[in-house]
Amino acid sequence: MAVSIVMPALEMAQETGKLLTWRKQEGDTVVKGEPLIEIETDKVIFDVEAPEDGILAGVRQVAGAVVPVGEVIAWIVAPGEAVPTDTETNPSARTMTDSRPKTSAPGAAAAAPAEGGRVSPRARRMAQELGVDLATVKGTGPGAQITSDDIVAASKAKSAESIETTATPVPEGPALSTVARVMAERTAQAWSTVPHFFLSCDVDASALQAIRESAQSGNGAGTPSRVTVTDLLVALTGRVLKSHPKMNASWVSGTIRQNPEINISLAIAVKDGVVGAVIRECDTSNVAAIGARRRDVVDRARANQLRLADVEGGTFTISNLGMYGIDSFHAIVTPPQAAILAVGRVADRAVVVDGKIVIRPMMTLTLSSDHRVVDGAQAAAFLKDLSDAVASPQALLS
Fold first, then answer.
1. Of these residues, 28, 98, 299, 375, which one is catalytic?
2. Catalytic-role residue among 47, 272, 371, 388
3. Angle 259-262-268 from CA coordinates, rounded to 5°
4. Tens digit of pLDDT for each residue in 301-320?
5. pLDDT at 168
6. What domains, with CATH codes, occur in the chain?
């Protein structure tokens, strides 16, 4: 039975994906799990693997094509089997764009789009949320597909019709890039759906700085290591998370999922936005290995060369804005993760030690948590242990 190869809908994928390279050609024999196509989304590049053994047939897209999510790209067929036509009904070969909601709640969008155009999954959800009738929307995406931008435009037009105003229209600014638009959508969704709460504390970073300076100088033994405060925090956070599994959990489909691995996602600034690249098994990796991985993903993120494996599987996020001179900030949780740690700069401050005012290099840590996964006491216990680890890191890092 023929099996379709479609443009995948990934958590990181957008409404379309760019087909970069065919690993196989029409008529080639393929083996299940073998790379077929190299795909690029807004933030990552990855390989689509063959879902079954067979022969690659019915190739519909060439390298360089921008393809809507869910659209059939090609087929894998058995020897002598014909490629299915668009009008055939084959449950195993249906694409995501074939689905249509059979019922609609009051105020929901109409099921059928105008002129029979395709609808991206995100656009269909937005239409239902905003009460936009898909039958009135004309798609501007590839192949006349209805995109989320079309839904937003239709919603604005609907609002304008219902509200009379004589105000002078304000010219619209330049269109957002794909990365900026997606980041805005995800941030808004996370802020509106995740019940956040925030905890902050100041910690003496003297010992942390001493370890960093010792590593960078080489301590008289061999080549200096480019260790950063972020590298040390990733290592310490990974080790403290072992004692606080709730902070490493995820909220998935209304339940708490315990994650078996501790994989910390680093927030990395790129052009027009932020991406999260994952450093795996932070509870057992040494600082040198973490630093090497951090340098690698930062370089590739800024060159738009991250792969799917670089952004998948994060269980906790760290966002460090200390290098920008920021003392403290509140970060927004990245679903389905339970928490994100916001890190400020290390700066000299006057503090009281043993009843005396002294100068110490201090750092502010702010923990944002999902109250569905953890409560205040659990988050506070984690932050307390992490603060202690930062103040006295040698035991955990030895």
1. 375
2. 371
3. 115
4. 888 888 888 988 999 999 99
5. 58
6. 3-96 (2.40.50.100), 100-157 (4.10.320.10), 195-397 (3.30.559.10)
